[in-house]
C-alpha cells in the first residue's frame, strides 16, 4: 500500500500527505553538498585549491592553504568538494589520501581538535588504536595521531574550518612541523585553514608564521547574477511551475545587497516556499520572498541570542526600542538603563544595577549584536560607554517580543 493513497482510510487533516510546493526540499538544506554541476562561479577558486593540493596525487606533501572570505561565499563547500575529488583521483594510482574536517567553532581547543582529527582518520580495526573521548594528554593524542597517519594514509588533508576560533595556533605549528621532526615518516600533511577574518595571519605567532608556509585564496562575495545561477541550479527543489518569474531575481538581489551571501539566498528561497506552503498558496510569489527575508533574519538573530538569559533580553529590547523611537543609533549606558528599568518594572522582573547592566552590554556574548565604545568625558572626569545595535532594531524587537514575557512591547515603536 502506498501511504496517502487509500481512500478508504479517513485521514486526520492536522497532517499533510502531499507537499504542495516542494518536490525535493532537501536541495535547499544548508547541509546539502551540491554535486559539481550545481556549483557555480567558483571554477578558478576550485582550480587554485586543486593546484595547492596537486602534489598529493603523487603521494607528495601538498601546500598548506589559508582561505578567506565573508560568510556564505562557498569556502567550506569548495574545500570539501575539491578534497573529495582529490581522494578519488589519487586512489586511481593507489595513493591513499584522506581528509579530516574540524569545525573549530565547536572544537576550539588544541586537544579537542587533535582528538577529532585522530578519530576521523582512524579505523580501530585496522590500527588497533582507540581514541578515547577523555583521559589522554594532548601529547598522547598527537602520538596516536602520528601512528594512525603513518599506518594507513599516504597524504592527509586537514580542513580547519573557522580556524580563527581556535584558542591558540599551536596545532598549526605541530601539524606543519610533523614531517620535519620525523614524527611521521610515510604520510604527508596538508592543512587548509578557513576563516572569515582577512587579518587572521596577523594573529599568528612568529613561530607559526615561519613553519606554516602557505598559499592564500580570497573568496569574494557573490554578485546578484551568480546568486541567481546558484538558485536556478536548485530550482528542482520546487514542483514545476510553482515559482513566480521574479522570485529568484528578487531573492538574489536581496542577498547580493547583504554581502553576497549564498547561504542567505538559499535560506530565503526555502523560507519563501515554506511561507507559501503555510498560506496554502499554489504559487511562490515576491511577497513570500519579502516575508521570507524577514523570517530568515529573525531566525539568525534567534540563533545568536538563543540561551541569552531573560535579563539580557530585556537589555537588548531596551536598546531596540530606543533605536526605533529616536533618530539616533548610539545610546549611553544611562539611557539604556532608564529604558531597561521601565521595562523590568512594567513586566515585574528583578532590576539589576546600572553597573551590572553595563557589564552585560560589554560581555563577549553580546559582541555580535552590540557595539560598545568608551568615550572620555574630558580630563579627570572619567569615561562613559555608548552602545549601538548591530542588528536591525525591528528584527531584534520582533524576536524578543516573540518571547511571551515581552509580548506587551510588540506594538511599541512601529
Ligand atoms: N558556488 C556555489 N554554488 C552552489 N552553491 C553554493 C555555492 N557557494 C555556496 N553555496 C551554498 O551556499 C551555502 C553556504 O556556502 P559555504 O558553507 O561554503 O559558505 P562559507 O563561505 O563556508 O560560509 P561561512 O564562512 O559562513 O562558513 C552552502 O549551502 C553551499 O552549498
Ligand atoms: Mg564555512
Automatic annotation (TrEMBL):
Domain Cdc6 C-terminal: 316-400
Any one biological process term the GO annotation gives: cell division
Annotated AAA+ ATPase domain residues: 61-234
Top-level lineage group: Archaea
Keywords of this entry: ATP-binding, Cell cycle, Cell division, DNA replication, Nucleotide-binding
Residues where ATP binds: 73-77, 222, 234
Record SUPFAM superfamilies: P-loop containing nucleoside triphosphate hydrolases, Winged helix' DNA-binding domain
UniProt-listed CDD domains: AAA, Cdc6_C
Molecular function in Gene Ontology: ATP binding; ATP hydrolysis activity
Pfam families in the record: AAA_22, Cdc6_lid, WHD_Cdc6
PANTHER family: CELL DIVISION CONTROL PROTEIN 6-RELATED, ORC1-TYPE DNA REPLICATION PROTEIN
Function (record text): Involved in regulation of DNA replication.
Protein family membership: Belongs to the CDC6/cdc18 family.
Protein's name according to its UniProt entry: ORC1-type DNA replication protein
Amino acid at each position: 500500500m502506498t501511504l496517502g493513497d487509500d481512500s478508504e482510510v479517513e485521514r486526520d487533516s492536522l497532517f499533510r500527505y502531499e507537499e504542495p510546493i516542494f518536490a525535493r526540499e532537501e536541495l535547499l538544506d544548508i547541509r546539502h553538498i551540491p554535486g559539481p554541476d550545481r556549483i557555480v562561479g567558483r571554477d578558478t577558486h576550485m582550480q587554485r585549491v586543486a593546484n595547492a593540493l596537486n602534489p598529493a596525487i603523487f603521494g607528495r606533501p601538498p601546500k598548506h592553504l589559508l582561505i578567506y572570505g565573508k560568510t556564505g561565499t562557498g569556502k567550506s563547500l569548495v574545500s570539501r568538494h575539491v578534497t573529495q575529488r582529490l581522494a578519488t583521483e589519487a586512489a586511481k594510482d593507489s595513493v591513499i589520501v584522506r581528509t579530516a574536517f574540524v569545525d573549530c567553532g565547536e572544537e576550539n581547543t588544541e586537544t579537542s581538535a587533535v582528538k577529532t582529527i585522530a578519530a576521523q582518520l582512524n579505523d580501530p580495526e585496522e590500527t588497533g588504536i582507540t581514541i578515547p573521548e577523555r583521559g589522554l594528554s594532548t601529547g598522547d593524542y598527537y602520538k596516536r595521531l602520528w601512528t594512525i597517519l603513518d599506518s594507513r594514509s599516504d597524504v592527509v588533508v586537514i580542513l580547519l574550518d573557522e580556524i580563527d576560533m581556535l584558542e591558540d595556533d599551536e596545532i598549526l605549528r605541530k601539524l606543519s612541523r610533523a614531517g620535519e621532526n620525523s614524527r611521521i615518516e610515510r604520510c604527508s600533511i596538508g592543512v587548509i585553514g578557513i576563516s572569515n577574518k582577512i587579518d587572521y595571519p596577523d594573529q599568528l605567532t612568529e613561530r607559526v608564521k615561519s613553519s606554516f608556509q602557505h598559499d592564500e585564496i580570497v573568496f569574494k562575495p557573490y554578485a546578484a547574477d551568480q546568486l541567481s545561477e546558484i538558485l536556478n541550479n536548485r530550482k528542482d527543489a520546487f514542483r514545476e511551475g510553482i515559482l513566480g518569474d521574479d522570485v529568484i531575481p528578487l531573492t538574489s538581489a536581496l542577498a547580493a545587497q547583504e554581502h553576497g551571501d549564498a547561504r542567505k539566498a538559499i535560506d530565503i528561497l526555502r523560507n519563501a516556499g515554506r511561507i507559501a506552503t503555510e498560506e496554502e498558496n499554489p504559487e511562490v510569489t515576491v511577497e513570500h520572498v519579502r516575508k521570507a527575508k524577514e523570517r530568515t533574519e529573525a531566525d539568525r538573530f534567534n540563533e545568536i541570542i538563543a540561551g541569552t538569559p531573560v535579563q539580557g533580553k530585556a537589555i537588548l529590547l531596551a536598546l531596540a526600542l530606543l533605536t526605533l523611537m529616536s533618530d539616533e543609533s548610539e545610546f549611553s549606558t544611562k539611557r539604556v538603563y532608564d529604558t531597561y528599568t521601565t521595562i523590568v518594572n512594567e513586566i515585574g522582573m528583578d532590576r539589576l544595577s546600572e553597573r551590572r547592566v553595563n557589564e552585560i552590554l560589554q560581555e563577549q556574548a553580546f559582541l555580535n549584536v552590540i557595539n560598545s565604545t568608551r568615550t572620555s568625558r574630558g580630563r579627570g572626569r572619567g569615561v562613559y560607554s555608548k552602545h549601538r545595535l548591530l542588528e536591525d532594531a525591528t528584527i531584534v524587537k520582533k524576536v524578543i517580543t516573540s518571547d511571551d514575557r515581552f509580548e506587551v512591547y510588540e506594538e511599541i515603536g512601529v
